[in-house]
Backbone:
C-alpha cells in the first residue's frame, strides 16, 4: 500500500515521502496515528496544500522535544529489583518501568518513546534510547540493582556480581584452609596417640 508520510518515520522516510508499506502496518499504525495518508491523488493534492503547515508544526514539535530532552540527555535512573546471586532478575525491566522512572512533572515519557529491543533481565548499568520526537532522541542510563548501595557501587563502575563471586571464592578458600588445618591436626593427634600405645 502506498502512503504519503505526514511526519518523519524512522527507517521509513521523511515528511512528504511516498513509500510502499505493508497494508497492516498502514492500517494499524501509520493511518490511525496520523503519521501518513493513503497516497491517492486527492490526498497528495491535500498534502501539497498543507505541506507548509505540517512542516511548521513538525518543526515546533521537534524544537519543544529538543528543549525537553536537554535535561534528560545522559540522565541516570536507578531501578531496584530482586535478582539471583548470578545477577539474573526475577522478572525483567520493561519499557513501562523505564518510562515511569524517566517521567517527571514537566515531561511525560510514554512506553512508545522507550527504544528497547528486549527487556532488561540482568543487574547492571544499561544504556537506553528515548525517542521524544522522530527527529529527537536522547540516551539515558538505567542502573538496575538489588539495593541502593549496590546501585551506587555500580554507578562508580564496580562489577558487583564479580565482586560478590570473588568474596564467595575467598570465603570458600578460607574455609577449605581451616578444614585442611583441622584435619592435619587431627591426623597428628591420632598419630601421637598411636605412638603412646
Residues:
Amino acid at each position: 500500500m502506498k502512503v504519503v508520510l505526514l511526519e518523519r518515520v524512522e527507517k521509513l522516510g521523511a515528511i512528504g515521502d511516498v513509500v510502499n508499506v505493508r497494508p497492516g502496518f498502514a492500517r494499524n499504525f501509520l493511518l490511525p496515528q496520523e503519521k501518513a495518508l493513503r497516497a491517492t491523488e486527492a490526498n497528495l493534492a491535500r498534502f501539497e496544500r498543507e505541506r507548509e503547515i505540517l512542516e511548521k508544526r513538525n518543526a515546533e514539535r521537534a524544537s519543544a522535544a529538543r528543549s525537553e530532552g536537554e535535561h534528560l540527555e545522559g540522565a541516570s535512573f536507578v531501578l531496584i529489583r530482586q535478582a539471583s546471586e548470578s545477577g539474573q532478575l526475577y522478572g525483567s525491566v520493561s519499557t513501562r518501568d523505564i518510562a515511569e522512572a524517566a517521567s517527571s512533572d514537566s515531561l511525560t515519557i510514554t512506553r512508545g518513546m522507550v527504544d528497547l529491543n528486549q527487556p532488561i533481565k540482568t543487574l547492571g548499568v544499561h544504556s537506553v534510547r528515548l525517542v521524544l520526537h522522530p527527529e529527537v532522541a536522547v540516551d539515558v542510563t538505567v542502573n538496575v540493582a538489588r539495593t541502593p548501595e549496590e546501585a551506587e557501587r555500580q554507578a562508580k563502575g564496580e562489577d558487583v556480581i564479580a565482586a560478590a563471586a570473588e568474596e564467595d571464592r575467598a570465603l570458600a578458600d578460607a574455609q577449605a584452609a581451616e578444614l585442611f588445618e583441622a584435619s592435619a591436626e587431627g591426623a597428628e593427634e591420632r598419630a601421637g596417640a598411636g605412638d603412646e600405645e
About this structure: Residues 76-162 form a domain with the Ribosomal Protein L9; domain 2 fold (CATH 3.10.430.100). The two ends are 100 Å apart (CA to CA).
